[in-house]
Amino acid sequence: MKNHILKLIVIFLVGIFLHSVSFAQTSIAVIDFEGKGVTNVEASALTDRLRTELFNIGGYKVVERGMMEEILGELGYQQTGCTSDECIVEVGKHLGVEQMVGGSISKVGKTYSVSARIVSVETREIIKTATYDYRGEIDDLLTSGMRNVALKLTGQKSTETEITRQSELVTSEVDIAEADWVDIGSRDFAITVALPGADEKSVVEEASEPGITIGVGGGFTVYTGAYMADATSAPSIDIFLRIPYSLYLGPLNVSLGVELQTYSFTGGVNPDISGIGLMGVANFNIVETPAGAVYAHIGAGYLGQSLGITAGAKFDYPIPNVMEGKLSATAFLKANATLDGGGIEEEGTESTGWANFGFALNYEF
Question: Under a CB-based contact definition with an 8 Å cutoff, are residues 298 and 310 in contact?
Answer without folding.
Answer: yes
